[in-house]
Design brief:
Elements: E1 10-13, H1 19-26, H2 39-49, E2 55-62, E3 65-75, E4 85-93, H3 102-116, E5 121-123, H4 131-139
Length: 167
């Protein structure tokens, strides 16, 4: 295992200029099988994301290099006495920097934001096959809780999905 870095790692919101490096981090084989958006498509998505009130892509950098990224969405709620909740998504660390404390720092940073926003919980999901990621999250104090379900929400899949009238 690599030792934690001696150089300071810092986190901040990503800027449009960071998107190509974020895509490089997402190109890892265990994230979407190495497939990523084109830069122009990713930049369009990034512009939409920046329009959400409490949704941002963050980067971790060290020695002038982007070494990690995550997305954080803070949602307002009517339940839970109006306390917001958070979703941490798209966590990636440069393979050369894994095992050096970057992921831990990013999660601490995300949870600090959640605390400042008054979130009653922060959740994330991880593919069942990513056992190293599970061990990492559990070592940080995340607990397995309930079940996570998903469905392909694209038109035409699944074929027997019930049709719902939109108003």
């Amino acid at each position: 295992m690599k030792k934690e870095t001696d150089s300071p790692v810092s986190c901040r919101k990503a800027a449009k200029e960071d998107i190509s490096e974020v895509l490089r981090l997402y190109a890892q084989p265990d994230l979407d099988s190495g497939k990523v958006l084109s830069l122009s498509n990713a930049e369009r998505h990034f512009e939409r994301i920046t329009g959400y009130p409490d949704y941002a892509i963050y980067i971790a950098s060290c020695e002038g290099k982007i070494v990690g990224t995550f997305a954080l969405l803070i949602m307002d709620n009517l339940a839970h006495m109006g306390s917001p909740s958070a979703i941490i998504e798209d966590v990636a660390v440069d393979p050369e920097w894994q095992g050096r404390g970057v992921g831990k720092l990013m999660m601490k940073y995300a949870l600090q934001i959640c605390g400042e926003k008054g979130c009653y919980k922060a959740v994330l999901s991880s593919n069942l096959m990513r056992e190293r990621a599970h061990a990492f999250y559990e070592a940080l104090g995340f607990e397995r809780h309930g079940y996570s379900y998903r469905i392909n929400a694209q038109p035409g899949s699944p074929p027997d999905a019930p049709q719902v009238a939109h108003r």
